């Protein structure tokens, strides 16, 4: 018999999937723009630029929704890595991913309505949502309004550091996305966590 | 018909001039300092009338100021232009020596091809295919775009910002002004709003500050030189990746005079462009790209590998439990 526990309110689920869609669109168009090649167009350049701009603004709005929603509902506390014993919890989580899971051991810190995330998740999610993503959004906005970028820097165009931060941040988010989707298969069943992300109910 | 004959006669005249005077005037050595002092003094005499100051305080009574207003020369701009060391009289012949100028003085005005014979022959072939020749062949001359008192060759300007400012001003002076456009355009032709017809181009105005109109409005197939075959919107380049790619055509166009200085500064491709503009798709760092592609591939391979081991161990365990 499976136990069900309600974990994720509707607003978080809606935000999560809109955010996911925006990031996937931005990744495809972003890769297409950065590696632009007349012989291998992934998405035609001016179309990619337009889609990237619109999706980027959507992502910025969604981030604001995320921050406000977290403040209003108190959900922000879930993302705070809580210090006593955090290193130990991180290590046991890594041991689980690197060994325990192959042996069929139970997850050391399964999600509960009180504590949604294990220590590694909390640290990663917090860094992505409050460091990397805002940096990518901010640099993206400078790309939209390049008059705010410095004219020149070290003899090169002032947009270069903005572009580099945008590129590096986006790459980190892309790497996160790949691991995040894979770690989504690590629930009690391969599909459990994806189901939870849709229905809000955690089945275990 | 007559137009064609006139054109043929011109070509013949240009060819003759070319054969008769292989050492074109344009390649003359620059004047000595003493000659330059004389030239400047002679030019100053012209500028007593043909300058803003002359217009404000005409040195002579009874001048047609309305007419004069259309024939002013800015000394600063002229001096720094490619013709800036030449005497006015080099082009403005005998009829201009005295005032009032001779009634037919204009007919003796030197033509560009008098000095630039070789160039004129090459350019005329390109120009004949241009949208300007197609619609305005009777009115259009070199000077319609290239004011000889102002022009500096891109090769001499070198700084892309200056080249862009000079060259785009030429196009926009007509194509962004109803009055100037109406002076040249066929009678019923209405000037299309320049922002509207370029609305497909992202960051339109930013492009116009960074690159020239002719970057797209002249054939991009020819990588060796920039053509005078100015093309309309049907023929103009619309593929962004022509410039926005590692093998950017900007190297053969706006940056062709600087391209030799390309040093892959800090490991960036097209770093000579990067000195002025960050061009998405063109100014990138292959080493950084490879590192990030490698990291991405490693992550994908890592999670797939982890997943396969997980699935194998799972099925082994299940089989064991079953036994």
What does this protein look like?
The complex is a heterodimer of chains A (about 200) and B (about 325). In chain A, helix 1 (about 10-35) packs antiparallel against helix 2 and helix 5 runs antiparallel to helix 6. In chain A, strands 1-4 form a two-stranded antiparallel sheet. Chain A has a two-stranded antiparallel sheet with strand order 2-3. Chain A has about 200 residues and is mainly alpha-helical. Chain A has seven helices and four strands; from the N terminus they run E-H-H-H-H-H-E-E-H-H-E. In chain A, about 20% of the residues are buried. The model of chain B is unreliable at about 15-25 (pLDDT under 50). Among the domains of chain B are: about 1-120, no CATH class; about 265-320, no CATH class. In chain B, about 50% of the residues lie in helices and about 0% in strands. Chain B has helices at about 1-20, 35-45, 50-55, 65-70, 75-80, 110-115, 115-125, 130-135, 140-145, 155, 160-175, 180-185, 195, 205-210, 270-275, 285-320. Chain B is mostly helical and about 325 residues long. The longest helix of chain B has about 35 residues, at about 285-320. In chain B, helix 1 (about 1-20) runs antiparallel to helix 7. The interface between A and B is large, with 36 and 41 residues.
Give a count of the beta strands of chain A, DSSP E runs of length 2 or more: 4
Give me the count of strands of chain B.
Answer: 0
CATH architecture of chain A: Up-down Bundle
Numbering strands along the chain, what is their spatial order in the largest sheet of chain A?
Answer: 1-4
Which class of secondary structure composition applies to the elements of chain B? mainly alpha
Distance between the termini of chain B: 100 Å
Highest CATH level, the class of chain A: Mainly Alpha
Give the tags.
heterodimer, A: 204 residues, mainly alpha, 7 helices, 66% helix, B: 48% helix, 0% strand, elongated
Can you give me a brief rundown of this structure?
The complex is a heterodimer of chains A (204) and B (323). Chain A has 204 residues and is mostly helical.
């Amino acid at each position: 018999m499976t136990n069900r526990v309600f974990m994720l309110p509707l607003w978080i689920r809606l935000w999560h999937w809109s955010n996911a869609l925006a990031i996937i669109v931005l990744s495809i168009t972003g890769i297409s723009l950065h590696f632009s090649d007349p012989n291998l167009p992934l998405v035609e350049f001016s179309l990619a630029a337009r889609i990237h701009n619109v999706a980027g603004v959507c992502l910025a709005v969604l981030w604001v929704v995320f921050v406000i929603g977290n403040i209003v509902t108190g959900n922000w506390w879930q993302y705070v890595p809580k210090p006593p014993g955090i290193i130990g919890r991180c290590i046991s989580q890594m041991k689980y991913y690197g060994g325990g899971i192959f042996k069929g051991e139970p997850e050391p810190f399964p999600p509960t309505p009180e504590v949604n995330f294990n220590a590694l998740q909390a640290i990663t999610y917090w860094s992505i949502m409050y460091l990397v993503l805002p940096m990518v959004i901010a640099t993206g906005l400078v790309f939209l309004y390049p008059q705010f970028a410095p004219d020149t820097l070290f003899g090169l165009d002032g947009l270069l550091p903005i572009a580099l931060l945008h590129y590096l941040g986006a790459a980190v988010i892309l790497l996160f996305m790949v691991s995040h989707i894979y770690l989504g298969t690590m629930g009690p069943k391969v599909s459990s966590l994806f189901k939870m992300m849709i229905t809000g109910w955690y089945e275990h | 018909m007559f137009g064609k004959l006139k054109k043929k006669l011109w070509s013949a005249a240009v060819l003759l001039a070319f054969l008769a005077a292989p050492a074109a005037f344009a390649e003359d050595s620059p004047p000595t300092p003493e000659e330059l002092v004389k030239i400047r003094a002679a030019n100053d005499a012209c500028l007593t009338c043909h300058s803003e100051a002359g217009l404000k305080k005409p040195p002579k009574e009874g001048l047609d100021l309305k007419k004069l207003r259309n024939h002013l020369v800015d000394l600063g701009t002229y001096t720094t232009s490619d013709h800036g060391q030449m005497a006015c009289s080099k082009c403005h012949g005998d009829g201009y020596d005295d005032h009032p100028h001779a009634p037919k003085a204009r007919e003796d005005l030197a033509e560009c091809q008098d000095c630039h014979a070789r160039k004129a022959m090459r350019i005329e072939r390109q120009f004949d295919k241009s949208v300007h020749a197609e619609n305005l062949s009777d009115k259009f001359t070199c000077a319609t775009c290239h004011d000889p008192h102002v022009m500096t060759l891109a090769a001499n300007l070198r700084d892309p910002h200056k080249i862009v400012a000079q060259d785009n001003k030429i196009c926009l002076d007509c194509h962004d002004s109803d009055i100037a456009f109406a002076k040249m355009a066929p009678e019923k032709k209405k000037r299309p709003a320049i922002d509207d017809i370029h609305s497909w181009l992202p960051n339109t105005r930013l492009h116009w500050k960074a690159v020239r109109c002719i970057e797209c409005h002249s054939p991009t197939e020819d990588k060796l030189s920039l053509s005078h075959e100015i093309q309309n919107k049907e023929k103009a380049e619309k593929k962004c990746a022509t410039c926005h790619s590692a093998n950017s055509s900007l190297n053969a166009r706006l940056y062709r005079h600087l391209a030799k200085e390309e040093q892959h500064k800090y490991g960036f491709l097209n770093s000579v462009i990067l000195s002025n503009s960050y061009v998405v798709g063109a100014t990138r760092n292959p080493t950084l790209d490879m590192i990030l592609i490698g990291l991405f591939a490693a992550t994908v391979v890592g999670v797939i590998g982890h997943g396969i081991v997980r699935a194998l161990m799972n099925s082994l365990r299940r089989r064991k439990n079953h036994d």
